[in-house]
Every structure is written in C-alpha cells, then in structure tokens.
Amino acid sequence: MSRVVTARSLLLAGALTAGLAAFASQGHAQSLGEVAKQNKTKNSKTTTKRVFTDDDVSHATQPVDSSPKSSYVSPTDIESTYSTLAEKSPRQLGEAIVPEIKFPERSQWEQKLYEQKEKMVAAGRAYLAAVKSGAGDKVASQAKQNVELEIYRYNNLKLDGLAKAADWERQTRR
Questions:
Q1: Which end of the chain is more exposed for a tag (fewer CB within 10 A), N or C?
Q2: pLDDT tens for residues 33-61?
Q3: What is the model's pTM?
Q4: How many C-beta atoms surround the C-beta of residue 116 within 10 A?
Q5: Which residue, 58, 16, 173, 166, is CA-closest to 103?
Q6: How many angstroms separate the CA atoms of 118 and 82, rounded?
Q7: CA-to-CA distance for 123 and 83, rounded, in angstroms?
Q8: Running DSSP on this structure, what letter comes out for residue 55?
C-alpha cells in the first residue's frame, strides 16, 4: 500500500522538527504550540484579499424569477434524443456512459439501459404523434408525462451504471 505525503503532513513534520530543535537549543521549556506558532508565522505567505464592491459586479436589469420550473420536454428535445440514441446498441449506450470499465454484470446493465431507451423512444414518438395530430391538451399532456417518466427511468439506469463502475474501480484499486 503506498502512502501519499501531503503538504500539510510535511509542514507538521517540519514544525515538529523545528520545535524539538528549538527546545534543545534554548535550554528552557517552551511549549510545542509556541514553537509551531513561531514557525507558522515564518512559513506562512502573505496573501492579499480581494474585496468586491457593487462596482465590481454587474446587476441584473430584470428581476430574477426564482420560482421552481417544471421539467418541460419539448418536441425538439425529443427529436434530438432520437437522433442520438435511437440507433445505438446496448454496447454503444454503455460505452457512452462508462467507457472501458468492465464491472461485473455490465452486459445485463447495458441490456436494461437499451430496453429503457426503447421505451423512452416509443413514449417520445407517441407524444410527438399526439402533438402533431392535435389530439387535444389532455392526451398530449398525458403523453408528455409518459415521456418524462421514461426519461427519468433512463437517467436512473445511467446513474446506476456510473455507481457500479465507480464501486468496481474502488474495489480493484485496493
């Protein structure tokens, strides 16, 4: 197991060494805290602080709306998703999310991701068909909710794969 030496540990070791040397050379008891304080002032660099004023910051000309927004999915967003995802294989989807990490059960995760992608694309197509046909607000709204749900599920599977890959990397480094 390798040890990483940080600047902080080197500084503490230096302060301890200097403290012991000072203690031995002075011939009287000086606390280690006092020695560390003296060394800190010797080793610390002077830094300047920047104070920001109103003149340094640009102000918004319009009030900022901080009300929560719904996660709106536009037809254009769905169509762009089709162009990037619709033709990808399970392996291509997996590689786009966690390249080169071969964690256990990766192929099963990729297959689940692919199946969810297919559901998401189908829901998107149904939404686009409802919007284009003028089926009405209620039908289009329900179709849009289905798209958002499938996108949510797809994103959860992506996160699951990322977590599995990160866990696998941690385990293999030990």
A1: N
A2: 676 666 665 555 555 666 667 666 655 55
A3: 0.56
A4: 19
A5: 166
A6: 10
A7: 15
A8: G
